[in-house]
Amino acid sequence: MLESKVEALLNRHSFELYNKKIVVGVSGGPDSLALLHYLQGIKDKRNLSIIVAHVDHMFRGQESYEDAMFVKRMCEQYDIPFEMTRVNVTELMGITGKSSQIAAREVRYHFYAEIMERYDCSYLALGHHGDDQVETILMRLTRGSSGKARAGIPFSRPFKQGTLFRPFLGLTKDEIQQYCQNHSLTPRIDPSNEKGIYSRNRIRKQVLPFLKTENHHVHEHFQRFSEEIQSDELFLQELTEKEINPVITAKEEGKITIDIKRFLRVPLPLQRRGIQLILKYLYNEKPASLSAIHIDQVFFLIHHQEPSGKLDFPNGLKVIRSYYHLSFQLQVTKAEAYLYEIKEPGKIELPNGGSIRIDYSDGELPKTNQYTALFKVESIHLPIVVRTRKKGDRMTLKGMRGSKKLKDIFIDQKVPIQDRETWPVITDKEDCIIWLPGLKKSSFEGIDYTAKRYILLTYDK
């Protein structure tokens, strides 16, 4: 039953599950465990290569570590490569000010991308299901989301250099649990899923059961709604880009200006999407405080009789009207460039509030994450240099061929424009970039078991 529903969803999206190298995100819970079992079952027949990635967020101490060991044993049983990382997300929340759910999600997806690069995989499979879809759409509609956000969880989307896909979106939670029982799978249960403090859990416990009593196939209708909204929005976004580009009179880093008269000739359904497109370009990562109210304020400014006016948006963005021109401008303060050299163990405090620490390690090697990096001493030309970025900076990326511009990495990683000028860039004596802390590691980073001594770099943001 589960197998046929998964196949039906794959066929509807013309997604062929053959000859693929797939990283599978496995927490140890019912959804991801069933997904791993399903993919393992078709691995030989479909010529699949599977690598499991697990993140221990360290929320539950020893219990969450045991989740990781449980998944590791499953992988050993299936003879599948297992990769894990442990990140103290609670500590990360204190540093970044982000919520537990957002901070944990960012850590997971960063690790998934790292494993995809390491194993040269083009696909990431996650275990989201139909009940998750219903919950997500209801949450976003309740919060006032618009456009594509209302569509909820996509079946697939581009992710880094590959594709993320979710083959279980056509299934209910009950069907997955039944699958686990049928195949004698004993998943780990995270008690936080039962807490009523999260709005998703309240929808799961109170709203979803009611909807299922009204229609047992409600998840199928929500999935159809999701797919229709996504296809409609894709078409409307293409139209928006086509109509908005001639309206833009000036475009530079941190600033876009539009001609109001031309803008008002754009069809109304595309005007709102045009403003959203401009904000997305400038912000890279949408601030949590940005809402539909801000879009309404832009329209009020456009239609107001006064020839000038100004709006203050989150994160220092200003919207300024001057007669028939409207400018969206981020207040980017030009940061002072810096450069430090490090030869000996120690710590450097950076102007952006962070710090870089260097240590030598010739014993047991520590586990690394996006904020730590290991280099064998022989591969680095000392001194190590910590500096701000320079025009034309490029670096080789771990697990990938060729090099990439730092500017493109900042854009891909959604680093706010105002943070890019002070972000630390780590190079060796020859100005070869070996690490972009918190974002990307170079081909020089990693463990070589023939090496006797390592340099350990740690970035505290």
Automatic annotation (TrEMBL):
It catalyses: cytidine(34) in tRNA(Ile2) + L-lysine + ATP = lysidine(34) in tRNA(Ile2) + AMP + diphosphate + H(+). ATP binds at S27, G28, G29, P30, D31, S32. Keywords: ATP-binding, Cytoplasm, Ligase, Nucleotide-binding, tRNA processing. It is an enzyme of class 6 (ligase). SUPFAM superfamilies: Adenine nucleotide alpha hydrolases-like, MesJ substrate recognition domain-like, PheT/TilS domain. Its EC number is 6.3.4.19. GO terms for molecular function: tRNA(Ile)-lysidine synthase activity. Residues 384-457 form the Lysidine-tRNA(Ile) synthetase C-terminal domain. SMART domains: TilS_C. Its main location: cytoplasm. It comes from the Bacteria. InterPro entries: Lysidine-tRNA-synth_C, Rossmann-like_a/b/a_fold, TilS/TtcA_N, tRNA_Ile_lys_synt, tRNA_Ile_lys_synt_N, tRNA_Ile_lys_synt_subst-bd. It is found in: Cytoplasm. It holds the Pfam family TilS. Belongs to the tRNA(Ile)-lysidine synthase family. Ligates lysine onto the cytidine present at position 34 of the AUA codon-specific tRNA(Ile) that contains the anticodon CAU, in an ATP-dependent manner. Cytidine is converted to lysidine, thus changing the amino acid specificity of the tRNA from methionine to isoleucine. The N-terminal region contains the highly conserved SGGXDS motif, predicted to be a P-loop motif involved in ATP binding. PANTHER family: TRNA(ILE)-LYSIDINE SYNTHASE-RELATED. This is tRNA(Ile)-lysidine synthase. It comes from Neobacillus rhizosphaerae. The gene is tilS.
